[in-house]
Amino acid sequence: MGKGDKKSRRGKIANNSYGARRPRKIKKRPTVEEKIDIKKKK
């Protein structure tokens, strides 16, 4: 278990890959209500 292990978090970081052990950060999308409010302000 270490940098060479493709299933471990450290191995994912070393391999520059993502997976179940190292999920990507989710970008928060604006809600429908926020989109409507933004359009009204302009």
TrEMBL record:
<protein>
    <submittedName>
        <fullName>30S ribosomal protein THX</fullName>
    </submittedName>
</protein>
<dbReference type="GO" id="GO:0005840">
    <property type="term" value="C:ribosome"/>
</dbReference>
<feature type="compositionally biased region" description="Basic and acidic residues">
    <location>
        <begin position="30"/>
        <end position="42"/>
    </location>
</feature>
<dbReference type="InterPro" id="IPR030826">
    <property type="entry name" value="Ribosomal_bTHX/bTHXc/bTHXm"/>
</dbReference>
<comment type="similarity">
    <text>Belongs to the bacterial ribosomal protein bTHX family.</text>
</comment>
<keyword id="KW-0689">Ribosomal protein</keyword>
<keyword id="KW-0687">Ribonucleoprotein</keyword>
<feature type="region of interest" description="Disordered">
    <location>
        <begin position="1"/>
        <end position="42"/>
    </location>
</feature>
<feature type="compositionally biased region" description="Basic residues">
    <location>
        <begin position="1"/>
        <end position="12"/>
    </location>
</feature>
<dbReference type="Pfam" id="PF17070">
    <property type="entry name" value="Thx"/>
</dbReference>
<dbReference type="InterPro" id="IPR031414">
    <property type="entry name" value="Ribosomal_bTHX"/>
</dbReference>
